[in-house]
From TrEMBL, chains A, B:
GO cellular component: cytosol
Protein name from the UniProt record: Histidinol dehydrogenase
Reactions mediated catalytically: L-histidinol + 2 NAD(+) + H2O = L-histidine + 2 NADH + 3 H(+)
PANTHER family according to UniProt: HISTIDINE BIOSYNTHESIS TRIFUNCTIONAL PROTEIN, HISTIDINOL DEHYDROGENASE HDH
Organism the protein comes from: Herbinix luporum
Gene designation: hisD
E.C. number(s) listed in UniProt: 1.1.1.23
Stated role: Catalyzes the sequential NAD-dependent oxidations of L-histidinol to L-histidinaldehyde and then to L-histidine.
Binding site for substrate: S237, Q259, H262, H328, D361, E415, H420
Family note: Belongs to the histidinol dehydrogenase family.
Stretches assigned to coiled coil: 58-85
Gene3D superfamilies: 1.20.5.1300, Nitrogenase molybdenum iron protein domain
List of catalytic residues: E327, H328
Length: 434, 434
């Protein structure tokens, strides 16, 4: 893996290179996606079934689009019991963590005659997209569904593309069932997102759509944003490890590799103050590499988006860490908790040498749906907050309003809004007429 | 104003008619907006200045784009002292309310050797769009800036279009200064949004863009979403009043009118169980109308998007209220607090007959930037939460990881990810090699 010294030029080049991975770079596909959305919006199920035939090579119709109880039962028979047990452990810790995120409604009644507050209400209907294909997404199902359940979402509608036999991967069905989802439809891609956003005869319209997908799914989510809400536009995965000379190069190497195996666009970066560590990590990576099943993907990912970056000191190391704003950040330094206090931008922060990133993927409890590609500067991990919305509460008595009514009227008139002033004034002057 | 009895058909027609007001209906302008964004992205200031010349008829360049301290001083001389006093009162209550929204970082250390948590960090750089033109937006400035300040945003960059003389409305500058904004640029429209999203020589790139604007601004915000975050896509304003026979028809009429004066696309709706109330409200509206300065706008708004809706009973009234999901909801019923508990979807809820909507626009404290056009089903009022983001915190000791390491490895292998399994295993087996 290449070792690069940080300076203004190398930093700029690296940041630009990393952004090439963004779904924002694929706007060329936007036209196709817009066409699919329009078609589903206008022609409903007909368009949906026809795209499923075209893209997934599956015959789906009104009668078989919804996963049946029998199919779920059958799926359970196909899933290893040991795995089911682990899935249930994972579910438990994900539930525990997310329950702590629950916000209460609150009110403030500290002023006589005035109640102000914030009412928290779950979103009523949520769509969860689960990718299909050969890969398994058991953990994704848990991570997307459990926060919605904890928030109190009434109706969770899952969509996932079928295989050519019109079947859904057994693991997905079992994970969905364990998470409490009962409504699953065999449809994927941009057409599934369009169906969730606008509704068809078979698929109910939802209020928000969450879940990862390919570039068509990502662009479709962006296109329907505003009609419905979405979680975020997911990009390829990434890790940044911030380490000093105290870090174990073998652990660093193994963790960089684990991220690189996701896909060729994944990015694995070490930022360190120690050249010795960088060199040892490079050696360890080569030692591991040949024995890993996904080494071809890993090699491409490391060649294109992998870096061992040398910083002059910890200040510079932390600065570039904040600029990259990585989805996953591991801190393996002398004093990792104190260094964490200087981190402004990261999706999830793994502290200390035993907090390896895959711990967060499956088992620890915090959500693994995280902001990618620098968006940790402004986006957050998927959370219970994504499945609620707030309403402000305002209540004044006559006496309380009377104290401010002249101010409000004057403010309204200053903005040229006489009907606003009127609506306050009529409450204090029986004969008021602006 | 028309009185309509609620039934499935009338409800469907009304909901469809209201959606015609959505910015989502104006996708025809999207191409122009995309072109402007591309141009600013590629040509920076040059494009920015040229669009400002074209659309705002103002000569803006590197030397005069930034508002100077002298200009702010001059603005103070033009603003009425009484108004300034009211502005400061409003600022105080807005600050008080939003301070209550502040979320703490938290951690859970209840299990030996495990720390899980959620770190809250302010977004670093935020852009605030303030519309220009003849209307004044003093309250908008306060509502957009104060939550960002409370959240701890480091750098707030305001943009607002200049008049033909290259000047910015004095009220906007004074409100900005009172709210603590020191960096204001004279640029508006889609070109301003593009500049904030990608940066130009004169305008810094920000992480998030908030604030209302015309259709070009709304579409530009949607287009740059993903590159940066945005607050929401604002549509025209609306009010729904839920009232029974106990409501004062004069107050109901005045409040419906106050919303209708915003613009021709504004919507004012009464949902009531009392035909008598609906008829009296209609009469009162006609009485007020002729004396209001913006009656032409009001008439068009009421004709196109105003309704007095008759529900058979409170259940039906509340159901349609939740389906419309209004930006502003006033409840004027016998027991308005209890009826509030049944409201699922609304931006701000005004309870009781003295909680007139303009109270919330200026003075009460809760934010007046609210989800419009049915988006209260999934969006929330602008809040301190819009200006922070969260990072998950995960830290395990060796002993804690050891208890789950076999489960994580098995789960990873079940998803076909051997490098994930490897990264955990190497920590427990010196010679591990997958």
């Amino acid at each position: 893996m290449r070792i690069i010294e940080l300076n203004e030029t190398s930093k700029k080049n690296i940041l630009e290179n990393l952004l090439k991975r963004s779904p924002n770079q694929y706007e060329a596909y936007a036209n196709i996606v817009d066409q699919i959305i329009k078609d589903v919006r206008n022609n409903g199920d007909k368009a949906l079934f026809s795209y499923t035939k075209e893209f997934d090579k599956a015959d789906i119709n009104e009668a078989n689009i919804k996963v049946t109880e029998e199919e779920i039962k059958k799926a359970y028979q196909q899933v290893d019991n040991k795995l089911l047990e682990i899935l249930r452990k994972a579910k438990k810790s994900i539930e525990e963590y997310h329950t702590k995120q629950k916000q209460n409604s609150w009110f403030d009644a500290s002023k006589e005659g005035i109640i102000l507050g914030q009412k928290v209400t779950p979103i009523e209907k949520v769509g969860v997209y689960v990718p299909g294909g050969k890969a398994a997404y058991l953990s994704t199902v848990l991570m997307d569904v459990i926060p919605a359940k904890v928030a109190g979402v009434d109706r969770i509608v899952m969509v996932t593309p079928p295989d050519t036999k019109g079947e859904v991967y057994a693991g997905t069905l079992v994970a969905a069932s364990e998470a409490g989802v009962t409504e699953i439809y065999k449809v994927g891609g941009a057409q599934a997102i369009a169906a969730l956003a606008f509704g068809t005869k078979s698929i109910p319209k939802v209020d928000k759509i969450v879940g990862p997908g390919n570039i068509y799914v990502a662009l479709a989510k962006k296109a329907v944003y505003g009609h419905v809400s979405i979680d975020s536009i997911a990009g390829p995965s990434e890790i940044l490890i911030l380490a000093d000379e105290t870090a174990n190069p073998r652990y660093v190497a193994a963790d960089l590799l684990s991220q690189a195996e996701h896909d060729e666009l994944a990015s694995s970066i070490l930022v360190t103050t120690s050249r010795k560590l960088a060199e040892e990590v490079s050696t360890e990576i080569n030692k591991f590499l040949e024995s890993l099943s996904r080494r071809d993907i890993i090699k491409k990912s490391l060649d294109n988006y992998g870096y061992l970056l040398l910083a002059k000191n910890m200040d510079e190391a932390i600065e570039v860490t904040n600029e990259i704003a990585s989805e996953h950040l591991e801190i393996m330094t002398k004093d990792p908790f104190m260094d964490m206090t200087r981190i402004k931008n990261a999706g999830a922060i793994f502290i200390g040498e035993y907090s390896s990133e895959p711990l967060g993927d499956y088992m620890a409890g915090p959500n693994h749906t995280l902001p990618t590609n620098g968006t940790a500067k402004f986006f957050s991990p998927l959370s219970v907050d994504d499945f609620i919305k707030k309403s402000s509460i305002i209540s004044y008595t006559k006496e309380a309003l009377e104290k401010v009514h002249k101010d409000i009227e004057a403010f309204a008139l200053s903005e040229g809004l006489s009907a606003h002033a009127n609506s306050i004034a009529v409450r204090f002057d029986e004969n008021y007429s602006n």
